[in-house]
Amino acid sequence: MPTPTLLLDERHRFIRDRLARQGRVLAVDLARELGTSEDTIRRDLRELASLGECRRVYGGALPNSPASGTMAERQRQNPERKSALAREAVKLVAPGQFVFLDAGSTNLAIADALPSGADLTVGANSPAIAASFLGRAGFQVLLVGGRMDFDVGAALGAQAVRDIEAMTPDIAFLGACAVDARQGVRAFHFEDAAFKRALAMRSRAVVLAATSDKLGVSAHFEVAPAAEVDHLVVEGDAPDAALAPFERLGIRIHRADLS
Fold first, then answer.
1. What integer pLDDT is reported at residue 68 of this predicted model?
2. Are 180 and 144 a contacting pair, CB within 8 Å?
């Protein structure tokens, strides 16, 4: 006969598998399927969340976004896919605009994809993104100041927020840690989320370019409701089922060509 510890491990394995396959779990459904109480399932979800294996949300849980490493680590992940997203994302930019590129490895790829001579004003809070324009004609670059967060790879804090409050970008490319139609755009660091939130509020259009592993997942701190995103740039093979909730919110979907 299985021991209580084994039963606990079996439930945890079941929940991990369900999160991996379906992208979310509901406590009421798990309780019914596993023949246990919702209180037991909620306790299991709290334990898994404390181990960093999921994020608790009302009524259930979402998987954590995998995009939790440092900027240097993220730059090495899926460079070809990020380049494809970048090529699609820059189609939304027109000459003469003020474009803000939030910190993030995908947004660094977008900076590289902007053509020389584009006649753009570019704002950035990431030194790496700002430096990518060195020696390239057609760009005026504004670098936001503040406390440098080396994990995020950006200037954050009160000074960075004050700087962005003096700007009105035509387009803001938000760096996405996680995005879900219900939970919205989220980030792993409190000050990063605060900066992104201020940026989104000040911008005329918000664009989010995200690899498929950032869709339908969660992170610790809220940036903005998903409905505040105007354009979502995704990989060409992103599942239709994952994108349908965003389309229902009126978000324009742009699929990148992976060829």
1. 52
2. no
